[in-house]
Structures are given as structure tokens and as C-alpha cells.
Amino acid sequence: KSFYDIGVAGIHRLFAHLEEIKNCDVLIVVAGMEGALPSVVGGLVSTPVIAVPTSIGYGAHLNGITSLLSMLNTCASGVTVVNIDNGFGAGYSASLMLRV
């Protein structure tokens, strides 16, 4: 299942899908800008969250370094972080977690 345009700036969009999100076995959460979304999701679910920082953003995103550092410093348990724009690594990690 995929969810799009669910960010912390419009947190109501996240809460609108929260029951579906909680039913997932593993979550891959892609975020740019400040990279806060994986931490928020990690605090709301009991399943593993794989955080993917993106190199796209505005302001002081520093080509993904800002969101990467934010994700690495999360206090939410169960959050794994892959490198900037590493969707493949996130998918591979998810397959290992699911033992696919």
C-alpha cells in the first residue's frame, strides 16, 4: 500500500490514514526538508520504520544532509535510516525484515 503527500506540515493527512498505516508490517517513509516525518510515524506505530532522506527540499536542506541528520537523531524507537535517496536500500531492508 502506498500513501502520498502525507507530511508533518499537514498532519491531519497522516491521521486520516493512521489505521491503514498501523496495519502495515513494515513502513518505508521518505521525507525531505527537515526529515521529521519518520520520527512522527515511528512514534505512532509499533512496526519497523525505514527512513529515507531525500536530496530535494527548500531552505537549508543541504542536498539531504539536514533530513539525514534529523532522521539519525530520532528518539522514536524502531526507526532504521538509509542513505540519502536510497530507496533501493530501503526496499531491500524491508524485504529482509519481512524475510521475503
Provide structural commentary:
This protein has 100 residues and is α/β, with parallel strands linked by helices. It has one domain: Rossmann fold (3-Layer(aba) Sandwich). Helices cover 39% and strands 13% of the residues. Strands 1-2-3 form a 3-stranded parallel sheet, sandwiched between helices. The protein starts with 10 loop residues before the first helix and ends with a helix. The model has no long low-confidence stretch (mean pLDDT 94).
Helices and strands, with pairings:
Elements: H1 11-16, H2 18-22, E1 27-31, H3 37-44, E2 49-53, H4 65-72, E3 79-81, H5 87-98
Parallel strand pairs: 1-2, 2-3
Radius of gyration: 13 Å
Helix content: 25-40%
Question: What composes the largest sheet?
Answer: 3 strands, parallel
CATH architectural arrangement: 3-Layer(aba) Sandwich
Number of domains: 1
**Which regions have little confidence, pLDDT < 50, spanning 5+ residues?**
none
Question: Number of DSSP strands?
Answer: 3
Distance between the termini: 16 Å
Structural class of the helix and strand makeup?
Answer: alpha/beta
CATH level-3 fold name? Rossmann fold
Strand order of the largest sheet: 1-2-3
Whole-number mean pLDDT: 94
* SSE pattern, N- to C-terminal: HHEHEHEH
Query: What is the CATH first-level class name?
Result: Alpha Beta
Tell me what portion of residues adopts beta-strand conformation.
5-15%
Count of helices? 5
